[in-house]
Amino acid sequence: MWISTTTQGCEECAKGGQAPSIQPVCRDEPNTTMEPVPVSLPYTRREFLRTAGGGLGGVALATLLASEGSAATHHAARARRVIQIFCPGGMSQVDTFDYKPELEKRAGKPFDPEGKLQFFASKPGNCQPSHWKFRQHGESGLWISDLFPKLAACIDDMAFIYSMHSKSALHGPACFMMNTGFTLPGFPSMGSWVTYGLGSESADLPAYVVLPDPRGLPPGGIINWGAGFLPAVHQATTLDPSNPEQPIADLYPPKNIAAVSPAADQAGLAFLQRLNRAHRADRRGNSELDARIKSYEMAARLQLSAPEAMDLRDESASVKTLYGLDHPEIGPFGRQCLLARRLAQRGVRFVQIYCGAENTTAKKIRPNWDSHEDVVRDHGYWGAVLDTGASALLQDLKQQGMLDDTLVICTTEFGRQPGAQGGSGKGRDHNAGAFTAWLAGGGIRGGIGFGATDELGFKAVESPTYCYDLHATALHLLGIDHTRLTFYHNGIERRLTDVHGHVIPQLLTG
């Protein structure tokens, strides 16, 4: 973008009702030459309108802009919000959603008779069919294994992508790819892109919230939900679902400090705000500083809003039973799913739930879906956890009248091999060539499958699908053209889908 000496501001700032591409900002300093010069852009469109508004009209405008809930979209949206379930470790497609009768026929026979293949961490063993029986369910007649008896009852609301594949069989890079579209760290997550494009529907809760597994962070840690080069305010806020009294670390001062009172706290916040504003005055365009200031302001509001959102006492006994909250193993994830519904209900735009943590050595079970040693042990445990929480979430959203405009996504970073792994043949190795993701609600046509793997479930062969297509489809349902949601960074117009991605029309209603 260029301006001359006679230009004050820029045309981009005058464009109202446009979904963001490059963050629109202006500099008011006149240039001393008549030649066009590149401009550093420190004011956002909202800041320009807010400072130019003035008077009561400006107050009203500021109130509207503060909600950030009326962001323009490229086309009519079918979904208002997203709840994403991420299952780190690598869920086995052939034990869950991708039925392979041919694999059953070849059970016990060498997967690679010629001995030419090398899996991620092992040589292929014998063909190993699903450890759980597959059955058809619902009016659609789609297949699902007995690992998920409760999700089977929701199958007509679910759409499956059987042909997902990844560019990496390493947990960290593959998790980054599913979350950001890139195998390298440092790129914005999908949730950050969504909130950059659409803003928040709540003034008192973050636009983007992550609920990690109680066991810890996933492979790659917090980079999975980072803002990358987007303004830092779009990074997710992490809530601790196991600690409703302190859902965010250090949200409240220690109770044993007598000097802390609501009045003293308010005075301290007001003084801090004055210091922040003075410090910011000479540092326009520093998004990390802006995000830090906004985070302090949000923290003050969260002292009231977060505990209310995390407090489940007003939920009925039937809802708590639906999510399995009293079960010692299933309950923690059930709580995450119920909190996701409550946060979405209160205007949070993007909620991400993790079903599994970082990959460490198994004790009784693996802490995620990475079943190298014993699929029955590990998937058996995590299957019951996911089955209860995810099915409850779909049913609850439906009962609340929210499923129609809430897009639910469930994915993992890659799949597992159809050949057995280990001396006892109980495990499965990593498989970047094939895995399954499913979606529901928010404009998704339920009861359908898209794409296919080969007859053994080894490789995606029909409509191979990367995360780019999944992301493009999700953005489309939110009213965003994935090719137009961009951010200029280091000389490149960056986007979530990079230079790839196509909307999958077969998954959409209407």
The structure class reads alpha/beta
State the total count of DSSP E strands.
Answer: 18
Question: What value does the average pLDDT take?
Answer: 85
Question: How widely separated are the two ends?
Answer: 40 Å
CATH superfamily descriptor of the largest domain: Alkaline Phosphatase, subunit A
In DSSP terms (H or I, runs of 4 or more residues), the helix count works out at 12
Number of domains: 2
Helix content, binned percent: 25-40%
CATH domain topology of the largest domain: Alkaline Phosphatase, subunit A
* Major β-sheet annotation: 8 strands, mixed
N-to-C order of helices and strands: EEHHEHEEHEHHEEHHHHEHEEEEEEEHEE
Question: What would the principal axes of the Cα set say about the shape?
Answer: globular
Order of strands, main sheet, comes to 8-7-9-3-10-13-6-14
- Share in β-strands: 5-15%
Q: Based on the structure given, which CATH architecture of the largest domain is correct?
A: 3-Layer(aba) Sandwich
Radius of gyration based on Cα positions: 24 Å
The level-1 CATH class of the largest domain: Alpha Beta
Question: In terms of topology, how is this protein built?
Answer:
Blueprint: E1 2-3, E2 37-38, H1 45-53, H2 55-67, E3 81-86, H3 101-105, E4 134-137, E5 142-145, H4 149-152, E6 158-164, H5 171-180, H6 190-198, E7 208-211, E8 237-238, H7 262-281, H8 287-310, H9 317-322, H10 331-345, E9 350-354, H11 375-399, E10 406-411, E11 415-421, E12 427-431, E13 435-440, E14 448-450, E15 452-453, E16 460-462, H12 467-477, E17 487-489, E18 492-494
Parallel strand pairs: 3-9, 3-10, 6-14, 7-8, 7-9
Antiparallel strand pairs: 1-2, 4-5, 6-13, 10-13, 11-12, 15-16, 17-18
Helix pairs in contact: 1-2, 7-8, 10-11
